[in-house]
Amino acid sequence: MGAEQGSVIGSFLPLIILFAIFYFLIIRPQQKQQKAHKEMLESLAKGDKIITSGGLVATIVKPEEDFIKIKLNDDTIVKLDRAFVAKKVELGNENA
Fold first, then answer.
1. Which residues of 40-61 are buried (b: 16+ CB within 10 A; e: fewer)?
2. pLDDT tens digits, residue range 16-45?
3. Rounded distance between C-alpha atoms, residue 87 and residue 44, angstroms
4. H or E segment and range at residue 28
5. Which of helix, strand or coil describes residue 13?
6. 30/27 Cα distance (integer angstroms)
């Protein structure tokens, strides 16, 4: 019975190692990226430049709880769901 139990563990060992590699290369970095994106969304303030997931570059007029009022140009102000903010344009990267 002892040898049989060892072979069962031995046959699952490659699967366990594969899962560990999968976790550290894919799942963990993705969780870090999601956390960083969430923190960025929470830190958005008036005057920040953002890029929407649709590719529009806009300036924040007023952050609200679920939505953000953004200015596309001098005349156009719209509401955008926070989920559609792709990234914040950092100072120095305004050529985007």
1. eeeebeeebbbbbeeeeebebe
2. 999 999 998 999 999 999 999 999 988 889
3. 10
4. helix 28-42
5. helix
6. 5
Paired strand residues for 68: 63, 80
Record the tokens describing residue 89, joined without a space. Answer: 């344009």
Q: Tokens for 58?
A: 């806009």
Chain segment 39-86, per-residue pLDDT in tens: 998 888 999 999 999 889 999 999 988 899 999 988 999 999 988 999
Calculate ∠ Cα 50-55-64, nearest 5°: 40
| Structure tokens given for 22 | 């999968």
pTM given for the model? 0.63
Cα 59–chain centre separation? 20
Return all residues near 41 (Cβ < 8 A) that are at least 6 apart. 82, 85
Rg of the chain on CA atoms, in Å: 23
